[in-house]
């Protein structure tokens, strides 16, 4: 039964992630609509009939179309987005309510149909006809999808919306709305909040707001009061790491609106869910008593974002409700902590790991896939580092903030952002994801460097990333003067290659395996050039063993036999890119005469050789 419950929760959580992926990228547009409504509606802060005419078209056309486009794009890129937006117009025009549920259906459905159609034509289009086939296949499929949405899916969703709205109205009419948090608060900690908020409360709230100008459903999940109360209880009555870290998380939760960081504080002591529930129910009673509501979705759920989309008539009771939620949650949480005191320093880390494990269940991923255990940016130009998760909010926002701060302190000029995995840009250089999401991110952007973390909030990988970026910013010089040596030790060319390889290895230019590639090259194609010079280097397959372009040189006055030629100057090369070519050019131009080589070797002139190789 336990496995069945976990599997069911994972499926619901994954479904919530899909819904969230359609809504989250468009939250800014929802807030725009909400602010226009709050300010210019006849009951708003600055009533204005002329501006208020924007409210209805934005609600009925713009917002559902954006959701349809985003849903399609998440499943099949820009092509899926276009067909998703077109198909969504069918449900919009075919109904007289804001068609958010219809958009959540039509966007992904249209994209999947487009993907199937494209597969039918794959490999069968003659050169020169690709554009016309692609455009007309999209256009013709769009006709069928729009008509299906207009005549079938739109009416069905309208009936479904009516049934659900009636159920919600019954709950509201019987004064039971506050008790919805008995289910909502545990769902948040179990990462089912996206399924509830964006799949049920959001669409129903928009329908209510279209009729009444506001909806209490918008504030049931985003209210930050319960979580802040729990964190304040840990701040004053907690122990160990939880007590030390709770104040900072409380500030992030209250004013940044990110709920996820407080989940571990409940998971480490499950009794604390009672504090969260009591706080939420108390606040909801205030909201219901005064008929409060928001005009749009508040996301992320901070005190500021809630007030930003609150009508002016509801400001005071909404503030009172959030503060009462905080106070009640704090009081109940303090009582629980005083009653069940412990000093387990590792409890929070265990809870964070448990939280990440639970979140991973809904991602479809598994294990550390594609993670770079040893980060290496050598030879790479890193400009964009993105921290990615399902929705591009919550934990990835926290991770990006931490990494951005560390990069700034290190003086790195790089762009660090958080983003949803489907929205990773084509020019991203490095993608940081939770280990359970790395496989998805690699499918989305296979050309990027992918780094897995097991915890977005406290991963040691962030320090390693910054350290490696700093090293890449200040790369090794191709040739160090101390890597030009005069020696009579080597007796064979294998001895020389070993000495060269060890110099390159010591300074971090190559791995230990590069020497084998140099020896293999000599067997396949000897590297003596004439004039007493040899330039040993690895075979092509050994290039992966090069960390940075480097050169080391040996002056061997007594000379060694190198394929029937006496070699007295050996220049070993590890070429990761094009940096070493200028040195080879100098060798060709300056040391093309045997007399020039003899003079340097006889004089044992390291300074002159360094000057020639680096000028």
From TrEMBL:
Pfam families named among the record's database cross-references: PTS_EIIA_2, PTS_EIIC, PTS_IIB
EC number: 2.7.1.197
Membrane topology, as annotated: Multi-pass membrane protein
Keyword Cell membrane: yes
Stretches assigned to the PTS EIIB type-2 domain: 383-477
Record keyword Lipid metabolism present: no
Keywords from the UniProt entry: Cell inner membrane, Cell membrane, Kinase, Membrane, Phosphoprotein, Phosphotransferase system, Sugar transport, Transferase, Transmembrane, Transmembrane helix, Transport
Transmembrane segments: 18-41, 97-114, 135-157, 163-184, 273-298, 318-340
InterPro entries in alphabetical order: PTrfase/Anion_transptr, PTS_EIIA_type-2_dom, PTS_EIIB-like_sf, PTS_EIIB_2, PTS_EIIB_2/3, PTS_EIIB_mannitol, PTS_EIIC, PTS_EIIC_2
Substrates-to-products reaction catalysed: D-mannitol(out) + N(pros)-phospho-L-histidyl-[protein] = D-mannitol 1-phosphate(in) + L-histidyl-[protein]
Domain named PTS EIIC type-2: residues: 15-338
Localization (cell): Cell inner membrane
Domain PTS EIIA type-2: 477-615
MF-aspect GO terms: transferase activity
Subunit field text: Homodimer.
Chain's role: The phosphoenolpyruvate-dependent sugar phosphotransferase system (sugar PTS), a major carbohydrate active transport system, catalyzes the phosphorylation of incoming sugar substrates concomitantly with their translocation across the cell membrane. The enzyme II CmtAB PTS system is involved in D-mannitol transport.
Stored NCBIfam families: mtlA, PRK15083.1
Protein name as annotated: Mannitol-specific phosphotransferase enzyme IIA component
């Amino acid at each position: 039964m336990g496995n069945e419950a976990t599997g069911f929760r994972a499926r619901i959580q994954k479904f919530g992630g899909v819904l969230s992926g359609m809504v989250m990228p468009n939250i800014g547009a929802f807030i725009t609509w909400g602010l226009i409504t709050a300010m210019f509606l006849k009951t708003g802060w600055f009533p204005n009939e002329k501006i208020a005419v924007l409210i209805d078209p934005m609600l009925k056309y713009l917002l559902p179309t954006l959701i349809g486009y985003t849903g399609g794009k998440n499943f099949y890129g820009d092509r899926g987005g276009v067909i998703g937006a077109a198909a969504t117009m069918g449900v919009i025009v075919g109904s007289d309510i804001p068609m958010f549920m219809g958009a959540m259906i039509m966007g992904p459905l249209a994209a999947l149909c487009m993907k199937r159609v494209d597969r039918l034509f794959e490999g069968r289009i003659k050169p020169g006809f690709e554009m016309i086939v692609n455009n007309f296949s999209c256009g013709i499929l769009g006709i069928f999808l729009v008509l299906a949405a207009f005549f079938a899916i739109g009416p069905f969703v309208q009936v479904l919306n009516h049934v659900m709205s009636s159920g919600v109205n019954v709950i509201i009419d019987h004064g039971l709305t506050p008790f919805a948090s008995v289910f909502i608060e545990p769902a948040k900690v179990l990462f089912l909040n996206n399924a509830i908020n964006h799949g049920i409360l959001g669409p129903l709230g928009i329908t209510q707001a279209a009729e009444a100008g506001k909806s209490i459903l918008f504030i049931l999940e985003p209210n930050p009061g319960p979580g802040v109360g729990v964190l304040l209880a840990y701040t004053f009555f907690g122990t160990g790491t939880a007590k030390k870290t709770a104040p900072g998380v409380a500030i992030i939760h209250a004013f940044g609106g990110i709920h996820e960081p407080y989940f571990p504080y409940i998971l480490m002591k499950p009794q604390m869910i009672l504090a969260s529930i009591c706080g939420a129910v108390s606040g909801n009673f205030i909201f219901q008593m005064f008929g409060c509501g928001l005009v749009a979705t508040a996301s992320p759920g901070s005190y500021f974002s809630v007030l930003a989309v609150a009508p002016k008539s509801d400001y005071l009771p909404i503030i009172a409700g959030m503060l009462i939620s905080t106070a009640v949650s704090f009081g109940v949480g303090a009582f629980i902590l005083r009653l069940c005191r412990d000093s387990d320093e590792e409890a929070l880390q265990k809870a964070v790991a448990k939280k990440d494990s639970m979140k991973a269940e809904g991602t479809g991923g598994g294990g550390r896939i594609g993670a770079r255990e040893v980060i290496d940016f050598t030879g790479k130009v890193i400009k964009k580092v993105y921290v990615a998760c399902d929705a591009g909010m919550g934990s990835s926002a926290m991770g990006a903030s931490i990494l951005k701060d560390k990069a700034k302190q290190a003086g790195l000029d790089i762009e660090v952002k958080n983003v949803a995995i489907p929205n990773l840009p084509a020019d991203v250089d490095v993608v940081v994801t939770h280990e359970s999401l790395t496989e998805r991110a690699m499918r989305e952007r296979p050309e990027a460097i992918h780094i897995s973390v097991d915890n977005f909030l406290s991963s040691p990988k962030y320090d390693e990333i910054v350290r490696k970026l700093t090293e890449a910013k200040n790369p090794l010089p191709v040739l160090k003067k101390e890597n030009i040596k005069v020696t009579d030790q080597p007796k064979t060319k294998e001895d020389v290659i070993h000495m060269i390889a060890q110099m390159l290895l010591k300074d971090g230019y190559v791995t230990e395996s590069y020497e084998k590639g140099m020896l293999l090259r000599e067997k396949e194609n000897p590297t003596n050039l004439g004039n007493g010079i040899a330039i040993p280097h690895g075979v092509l397959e050994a290039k992966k063993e090069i960390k940075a372009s480097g050169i080391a040189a040996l002056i061997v006055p007594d000379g060694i036999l190198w394929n029937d030629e006496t070699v007295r100057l050996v220049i070993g090369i590890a070429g990761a890119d094009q940096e070493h070519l200028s040195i080879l050019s100098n060798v060709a131009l300056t040391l093309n005469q045997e007399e020039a080589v003899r003079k340097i070797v006889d004089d044992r002139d390291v300074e002159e050789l360094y000057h020639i190789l680096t000028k």
